[in-house]
Amino acid sequence: MGCNNCIVGNLIVDVKVTGEGNMTAMPSLMSFIQAEDIQQNSEEYILRMEEADAVDFADFSGDHLDRTQIFYKVPDKDWDVIEGIYDLSEHKWIDDVIKKRLVTCHYQPIVTDNGDVYAYEMLARFYNEEGETIFPGEIFGAAKERGRLYALDRLCRMTAVRHSVNLKDKLAFINFIPTSIYNPEFCLRSTTALATQLSVDPRQLVFEVVETEQVKDVEHLKSILNYYRSKGFQYALDDVGEGFSTMTMLQDIKPNYMKLDMKYVQGVADDESKQKVAKQFLTQARKDRAVPLAEGIEEEEDFEWLKKEGYQLFQGYMFGKPSPEVIA
């Protein structure tokens, strides 16, 4: 549980020096390193330093060492070649986005089969200090590069909970990344405390698993969802489609809501293969007593086909794009 996960401070980098030639040269070069902690064994040097020092060391090693035998690592990331430290440093701007909370929420309606608003998905929107939009793909890519996914995911969750106050009696679907949460009791405490502070009914919040198909550690996911359930919250699985792993997961998790991946929604009215997946999905949802939700709807014929089959909730541009204001 490194503090880089919880607090966006100076990034600490481990640098590992290997290779016979490098090992021979290192003793005479150690004065260059201003490291907080230096460890050494018979095969390699492992040096711990702040990010700026690691960048300087990468520059220095280009002239004096074999850089193909030097690697770096930040918390929650694997070892990588030292040249990667430059990409890491170029994404430093993500630290300011998180520390200065340069994020807001847009609301996208989720409707019933007769078009009434049932809930809103809370979608994070990011910007820089000049007020210019930063696209989510760029944000999350930078956060992943710097090992900041937990801090960013926490910021988005907390922002969504704050904005849910505007929804009155409607539900708020809030995304979260399971792999960014290493201990539910510790990581989610501030989220539940904020909901209590704002007098938000836990039953109003539906925490939505992002990238359901990518979940590898089902037991870890179950521990997160059990924590949410114990606090009175509901949860949903996003982007569910076909695939043995997802369907097997559903047998254990039994979500309150299941979202059919938009790639099986768009064009479903005229595509038998998509219809097959949509019907299998609906059967599984009913079996698990989950509310089926079709996302990404843009065409009337797809909406009508899904509604006829028995889908209960719908989301997509046909019903409303994400908006900074709550639109009933």
TrEMBL record:
CDD domains: EAL (cd01948)
Protein name per the record: EAL domain, c-di-GMP-specific phosphodiesterase class I (Or its enzymatically inactive variant)
Coiled coil region boundaries: none
Domain EAL: 87-328
SMART domains, per database record: EAL (SM00052)
A molecular function GO annotation: cyclic-guanylate-specific phosphodiesterase activity
